[in-house]
Amino acid sequence: MKINFSELEKEIQTILNTPQYNDHPASRALRQLWEVNQEQWNRMDRLTRLSDSYQDMMMRREKSLSERFDKHLRQLEKITRISDRYQRNLRQLNLELERTSLIDPLTELPNRRFIMKRLSYAVEHRDDALSEGLVVAMIDIDYFKKVNDQFGHQVGDDVLVSLGKLMNDIIHHYGSLGRWGGEEFLVILPQHSQEKAIALMEKVRDGVASYHLSIDHKSVSTSISVGISCFRAEDSMDTLLSRADDALYLAKSKGRNCLIVGS
Ligand SMILES: Nc1nc2c(ncn2[C@@H]2O[C@H](COP(=O)(O)OP(=O)(O)OP(=O)(O)O)[C@@H](O)[C@H]2O)c(=O)[nH]1
User: Fold this and answer.
1) Which residue has the least CA distance to atom 32 on ligand 1?
2) Residue 134 lies in a domain
3) Is ipTM beyond 0.95?
4) Average pLDDT over residues 9-29
5) Residue 131 reports pLDDT greater than 80
6) CB 104 near ligand 1, within 6 Å
7) Would you say residue 244 lies in a domain?
8) pLDDT at residue 164, rounded to an integer
9) Residue 129 — pLDDT band, cuts 50, 70, 90?
């Protein structure tokens, strides 16, 4: 049988409030039972409220912890993004720095430092057993001072850029061209016989001699002198280069617009 507690409570309350039952022997016991019951209800109620407020507190705490965790996570993501961007910029700057330390800013060809590195590599890694060896060619533009004097330094710069490109277009399939300094260039041909090197440099010399650069309705033409040096077993980088330099000097003294092989 299902007990209706609310009805039962009302019934007991009525009995306890009826004066004529006050002296009834069961009245005292019933009143005590009623008070114990009320006390237990109150305790239950306190426990339930305590448990509710404990759960509320835990939920608030969990919420605040999770909010703090999310905030830290967002900060961490922001720092990671900044650090990634910083590292990308740093890498870019390093690449730029490396590029500017090795590339001539005017002609955009390898500069003297870079071409020396390449020559040092070519000397170290040459194979003396091969029939064709390492050849260098030193190039100097003839009477370049006159170009500057006649047309101005800016036109002189344009001539250096154009000739650098023209010569590089011919040479880059076979070796490397770099700006040695001023109006001088250096060519490295890692695997060339003397004849092949002469033929190639003759093509370069001829290309420059027939080239006319037109600037402001003026035609600027130039020529180059070339000193060639082929690597010998007893050579160092210095002796190889100084033989090319001596050959260039001879080419200049022979009237320019020609090439000489160093002996
Ligand atoms: N426009 C310009 N001129 C330069 C640059 N570097 C060097 N020069 C010029 O190149 C000229 C070299 O002159 P010289 O050494 O007398 O040689 P040259 O007039 O070419 O005569 P030879 O070499 O004897 O045929 C100088 O006038 C330098 O100012 C440059 O980057 N730009």
Assistant:
1) 157
2) yes
3) yes
4) 86
5) no
6) no
7) yes
8) 98
9) confident
pTM reported for the whole predicted model: 0.73
Of 7, 183, 195, 202, the catalytic one is 183
**Residues 126, 207 within the same domain:** yes
Residue 63 in tokens: 């919420």
C-beta of 141 in contact with ligand 1 (< 6 A): yes
In the residue annotation, 183 being an active-site residue is answered as yes
Amino acid making up residue 199: A
Whether 216 has a pLDDT exceeding 80, the answer reads no
CB atoms within 10 A of CB 213: 18
Residue whose CA lies nearest to ligand 1 atom number 13: 145
Rounded percentage of the chain residues whose pLDDT exceeds 90: 76
- Asked if 116 and 17 sit in the same domain, the reply is no
User: Which residue do the tokens 């239950």 mark?
Assistant: 44
Find tokens 């300094």 and name the residue. Answer: 181
